[in-house]
Amino acid sequence: xxxxxxxxxxxxxxxxxxxxxxxKWFMGGIRSEAQVHxxxxxxxxxxxxxxxxxxxTHHTGLGLTNEMRRLxxxxxxxxxxxxxxxxDTEANLHKRLLEEL
Length: 101
Description:
Elements: H1 6-17, H2 21-26, E1 35-38, E2 40-41, E3 44-45, E4 51-54, H3 56-60, H4 66-70, H5 80-86, H6 90-100
Antiparallel strand pairs: 1-4, 2-3
């Protein structure tokens, strides 16, 4: 993937500043600091404008405990299928994010 342009960097900064969309929309409005997750197609990043804000727990599973898993928290790093089954498709989350940005 090419390095991000100025416009793409600005967009990703806005995405990260949104807070984790999963915590915000599915965990009672929690405002968790977010990392930018690049959406994938065929295992490859689609582009810098196709990103979601995810906290470290929902992105990579950082800090995820067995109790949190029992409560249904699924990190994107587990698999796209498991993540989307728990929350919604990345495409739908992205559409909602763009509407709220």
